[in-house]
Design a protein that fits this description.
- This protein has 5 helices and 10 strands; from the N terminus they run E-E-H-H-H-H-H-E-E-E-E-E-E-E-E.
- It has about 180 residues and is α+β, with helices and mostly antiparallel strands.
- The protein folds into 2 domains: about 80 residues, no CATH class; about 80 residues, SH3 Domains (SH3 type barrels, Roll).
- The strands form 4 sheets. The protein has a 3-stranded antiparallel beta sheet, with no helix packed on it. A 3-stranded antiparallel beta sheet has the order 7-8-9, with no helix packed on it. The protein has a two-stranded antiparallel sheet with strand order 1-2.
- Helix 3 packs across helix 5.
- The chain is elongated and about 75 Å long.
- The N and C termini lie far apart (about 50 Å).
Length: about 180
């Protein structure tokens, strides 16, 4: 790590400065005050402090510009931040670097299906029932130990998978299955 500069790269403050890496290129650091650093690494809310980004988005220092872009992206619910992002220009390689460190907060949370042992399930896996399951409407019980091959995942519910048991396609709760170690 290099020594922090004498002013915050974002707001110009001269107090409580520390060198802060700009991921994913962690060998590149910028000097930030504690307020700016807390916004970079933690929760960020609109406040007059962040108006400093109006100037720093135009910085000739790539790491400073990238950090400003990331903060503005996290503040994009604010009109002023969204407007500034619309007119900001970053060189293509800097834009790629900036986006590599962003978390897409608009993206729907990733649904991950897990068995009773918290092992991730994938479409096409084979699972084994760990409990006798009464199949409603089908008039039979799926017995413990039954292998369900070539499962499909219910896309909007991490607790449900689908598979064929006794020739019928049924929905199965993931808490009642374990992934088979030998796929086939």
């Amino acid at each position: 790590m290099t020594e922090p500069a004498s002013v915050c790269a974002l707001c110009g403050s001269q107090s409580d400065l520390s060198a802060t890496p700009v991921p994913p290129q962690d060998q590149v650091n910028i000097s930030l005050c504690s307020t700016c650093q807390s916004g970079v690494v933690g929760e960020i809310n609109d406040s007059p402090h962040w108006k400093c980004l109006n100037d720093t988005i135009w910085s000739t220092d790539a790491a400073t510009q990238i950090t400003a872009y990331r903060l503005l992206s996290r503040l994009k619910s604010e009109v002023w931040a969204r407007d500034l992002l619309d007119i900001a220009y970053l060189e293509p390689e800097n834009l790629e670097w900036a986006k590599a460190g962003l978390i897409d907060e608009e993206q729907e949370p990733l649904i991950i299906h897990r068995d009773v042992n918290s092992v991730q399930l994938s479409a096409g896996d084979t699972v084994t029932l760990i409990k006798d399951l009464n199949v409603k409407g089908a008039g039979f019980t799926a017995k413990r130990g039954t292998a369900v091959r070539n499962i499909s995942l219910v896309q909007d519910n991490e607790a449900h998978i689908e598979g064929r048991v006794n020739g019928q396609q049924i929905v199965i709760l993931t808490e009642f299955v374990k992934k088979s170690s030998a796929q086939g």
